[in-house]
């Protein structure tokens, strides 16, 4: 897609509006950092500091501090650049960046020490921990899906967060690696999960829910009765507020694994990690404002397909789908929405400015 000068100017104005800083105090010294395998020359993030209104943290910076906001993400070689941009956007737009604690889950085969050092070099003041995920735990449960990328065992790590993360952490926001925050994540963190609700996420009830499962599912009442008496809607698992305390008590990891075992035998859906979540939580989601997941910006499987923003306010942009903004930017063929992602990119940042 070739952008005219007019389009570029309009997008620059839009980006400028989105990048109005929050009340945190920021420094803007950017230093090139050392290579980490294929990750070439990331620059150091600006330093973000708390505003005066932020809750005071305990002196030992314990992961159990009740004043922390917990965010879980996965890290791998293909999406590392997206993850770094997502972290950058979270810190930039929150008024209490020092109260954010990141839980990064990566493959057991990844170089744990180098990965930790690389994240520290990009975000020297970041509070975080890297966890090793044993992919053998889930590998034999994964069925092939319509896209090979969906079969990556790390896509299923979100199912095991309640086991991976320290048990003193009872609430977490899970974010995919292809998102950008343009609002204060404290607002998302403050959303209540009422009653027995375990997950909060935007729901899309206009979508045809039946299409997420095949005839093998709907024709067998012992499967389809799982939705009896419920009004399930599609939800995207790339942005979720999760009550890990309730999750542990209800052993929801085992419930998801049970559906994955059925899938291996009966083939009741075609997608990857999403359907088991829908089978367990469909109709029991705490619906939150759609502005917290403007999804689908990656486009569909067609070459050079671009999506536009949905009408209404935006707090989080999500490049779900096949196309990723860093790939299209490097190819010199970005979609207009990709230019909203570029200012958060800390990989050879000067190429986009």
TrEMBL record:
GO terms for molecular function: glycosyltransferase activity. Its EC number is 2.4.1.-. Residues 1-24 form the signal peptide. It is a single-pass type II membrane protein. Its main location: membrane. InterPro entries: Glyco_trans_8, Glycosyltrans_8_dom-fam, Nucleotide-diphossugar_trans. Pathway: Glycan metabolism; pectin biosynthesis. Keywords: Glycoprotein, Glycosyltransferase, Membrane, Signal, Signal-anchor, Transferase, Transmembrane, Transmembrane helix. It is found in: Endomembrane system. It is an enzyme of class 2 (transferase). It holds the Pfam family Glyco_transf_8. The keyword Chaperone does not apply. It comes from the Eukaryota. One of its GO terms (cellular component) is Golgi apparatus. Belongs to the glycosyltransferase 8 family. PANTHER family: GALACTURONOSYLTRANSFERASE-LIKE 10-RELATED, GLYCOSYLTRANSFERASE 8 DOMAIN-CONTAINING PROTEIN. This is Hexosyltransferase. It comes from Nicotiana tabacum. The gene is ACRE231.
